[in-house]
User: Fold 3-dehydroquinate dehydratase from Aquabacterium commune.
Amino acid sequence: MASILVLNGPNLNLLGTREPGIYGAATLADVEALCLATAQPHGHTVTCLQSNHEGALIDALHEAGRAHRAGELIGVVFNAGGYTHSSVALHDAIKGTGVPVIEVHISNVHAREPFRNHSCLSPAAAGIVVGFGVDGYRLAIEGLVARAKNA
Assistant:
């Protein structure tokens, strides 16, 4: 049984209370439960990690790359939060490890402030899910599962 890493970046620990008009009322615990419930019928486990620190996210991607090469992990669902728009280091970690990453955004970042229109991660991502609320995590997991079946 291979696993899926669900990686959440800065401020996503505030889901449910941070700008609910944009991000909704679901908490990070709700998102994690959704991810577990989505992966389980496909025979996959889920590990969830949230960090407000870029280095911890990079370390998690490095470990995910090792696990992917070992056949233990099918990929990563990654909501990098604000780091999406600024972190070349996260882009390099995704590209350098070769692990399939699905970039997720709860809101439609292209309909928000102009600085959110650019993603440093998209060129390295295997896919992108934008604007479906927390259901985007479910869509990302389904995409990773389909991708792994076709590999």
Q: What stands out?
A: The CA atoms of residues 69 and 99 lie 8 Å apart. Helices lie at 20-23, 28-39, 54-69, 88-97, 135-149.
